[in-house]
Amino acid sequence: MSALSTAGLVIACIGGFIAIWLLACALIALIGGWTRLAEDFRSEGHACPPRVLLGGAYMRFITHYSNVIRISGGSDGLALSVLLPFGFCHPPLLIPWGQIEAQEFKSLGIFPAMKLLLGREAQIPLTFYSRAAREMIASHQTQLISNRISSC
Hints:
Elements: H1 3-32, H2 34-41, E1 52-53, E2 56-58, E3 64-66, E4 69-74, E5 77-82, E6 93-95, E7 100-108, E8 111-118, E9 124-128, H3 131-138
Antiparallel strand pairs: 1-4, 2-3, 2-9, 4-5, 5-6, 7-8, 8-9
């Protein structure tokens, strides 16, 4: 094999990997509901410090995000963003507290979980296990649709 065809093969493999990566990110955003939430709650660079990294989070149809979603809360709502390089088709979101329903903490084994339904119309589930995120959301419980959450 000549050096030119080897270089072409390497470039084709890299291009194919990037294309598959972007397609996977887009499909996860579509299936999990991020795309639907972005229709109503896309944020233009809004930041609500401090940010907490969700250890693991599940969205619609068991779409799993492992250590890539950042979450923060301020007086105007819950901000969500996805870390690079996973953020393709995942624009930052700012969801007003009045558009979030918090359900009671659940326990999956020894790990307590919290489930949020994002958007009154969309009702996209977000289930996570991060204690810091649960405490941050609990501090805003008076602004949520449902105040059925308890303290950690």
